[in-house]
Amino acid sequence: MAKKVKTVIKLQIPAGKATPAPPVGPAVAPHLNVMEFVKQYNERTASQVGTVVPVEITVYEDRSFNFVLKTPPAAELLRKAAGVASGSATPNRAKVGTVTREQLRDIAQTKLPDLNATTLEAAEKIIEGTARSMGITVA
Amino acid sequence: MKWVELSVEVHPEAVDAVAEVFHLHGTGGVAIDQPIEVDREGELLPTFVGHPVIKAYLPMGSDLAAQEREIEEALWHLQAFDLSPVGALQRRELDEEDWANGWKEHFHPLRVGRIVIKPTWREWGPKPDELVVELDPGMAFGTGLHPTTQLMLSALQARVRPDMRILDLGTGSGILAIPAAMLGARVTGLDTSEVAVEVARANVAANGMTERVSVERGSIDAVAGRRFDLVFANIIAGVLVDLASQLAGALELGAELLGSGIIDERADLVRDAFVAAGLEIAEQQREGDWWLIVARAPA
């Protein structure tokens, strides 16, 4: 019989550099020993240092856990596609970059499994909203 | 250390946009509380229920108020894109103590062969021949819950002999150094983490092993020129590969290196590095995704 799920913890943290400090500690410590998770996360994401690698940890009733690494946040993929270091602080006024419709579709395709969307069109709409909120225009 | 937790409820579509606002303002990552649903068997249902809550943390400091104001402003800007949070930005202060001890209630005594790892806050009626290690890992690695630590505990008791000189690189909580000392060895524990050094020293003292275990901050360079009868290195694959030749250089003729913390997909790299450093692979054990590799120096 499958193990009973107790909770699911979602984090967006820098690859290879997790520490017991927040946000990891307060989210993980009530359920698991933080260092057991930190060590495994850093080991699995060591090759992706410099990016944010979201993780979803499933904690079971018997206190065992496993985790899956997710695709990078849409904002990170958008920044890379637009070739900008960071989003705009005032996105409704100052635009920082542009992505093409095709780049947007690629990102939507990448993110589709992790989004609350069933079709590529719906995923594209979500990603486009995120792009605009960062001051990135879709051309 | 004190922190401020900023949290905000959002629509699922707004998760990445709001998380980005926190990333931009230097919170070092976010946690996302997504309510879950499980069926009667305890299996997770693949549905989204309710609104996720995004939580980010800032250390208490002088420019905190300004940072909070900037975050609030940036969240406000999101309304122009229909991504504004569902609720207001919530704020609460919390202390490291508030979460640091939460996991302790799930940490129970663990027996591996003769060695019993006993959390200091648990009771244990020892049986004859058992070595009971009193342990409070604090924020350091090494509770015995991780498969690599269990592999090491099992391997070390088959090898440690009285008066052996042992190096424990990456000593963590001292979970390996202390039982080795109880078996009669003299152990040098090293760790690059200051937290680990403090925790390990406290555990060594609590077990009355200060005569047999010394713990210092540092890596393998700290024992350059010294040779040991047995070396423990329960770290991670990347570090074992980088330090392979120095680890080999710390072994007496015919002595063994117990390398662990090695995840399956990188085990070959570690084996190759050990062999390239002139060692012979003497034994290998696997537990789940994790390997222990025993490498021996030429006699």
Topology, element by element:
The complex is a heterodimer of chains A (139) and B (299).
Chain A: E1 5-14, H1 24-28, H2 34-45, E2 52-60, E3 65-69, H3 74-82, E4 97-99, H4 101-111, H5 120-133, E5 136-138
Parallel strand pairs in A: 4-5
Antiparallel strand pairs in A: 1-2, 2-3
Helix pairs in contact in A: 3-4, 4-5
Chain B: E1 2-9, H1 15-24, E2 30-33, E3 53-59, H2 64-77, E4 90-95, H3 96-100, E5 110-112, E6 115-119, E7 131-135, H4 147-157, E8 165-169, H5 177-182, E9 186-191, H6 194-206, E10 213-217, E11 228-234, H7 237-249, E12 251-263, H8 267-276, E13 280-287, E14 290-296
Parallel strand pairs in B: 6-7, 8-9, 8-11, 9-10, 11-12
Antiparallel strand pairs in B: 1-3, 1-4, 2-3, 5-6, 12-14, 13-14
Structure, described:
The complex is a heterodimer of chains A (139) and B (299). With 139 residues, chain A is of the alpha+beta class. In chain A, 37% of the residues lie in helices and 22% in strands. Chain A has five helices and five strands; from the N terminus they run E-H-H-E-E-H-E-H-H-E. In chain A, the strands form two sheets. In chain A, strands 1-2-3 form a three-stranded antiparallel beta sheet. In chain A, a hairpin with a 4-residue loop joins strand 2 and strand 3. In chain A, helix 4 crosses helix 5. The radius of gyration of chain A is 17 Å and the shape is elongated. Chain B has 299 residues and is of the alpha/beta class. Chain B folds into two domains: 101 residues, Alpha-Beta Plaits (2-Layer Sandwich); 157 residues, Vaccinia Virus protein VP39 (Rossmann fold), CATH 3.40.50.150. The N and C termini of chain B lie far apart (51 Å). The mean pLDDT of chain B is 91. Classes of the chains: A alpha+beta (139), B alpha/beta (299). Strand 1 of chain A pairs antiparallel with strand 2 of chain B, so a sheet runs across the interface.
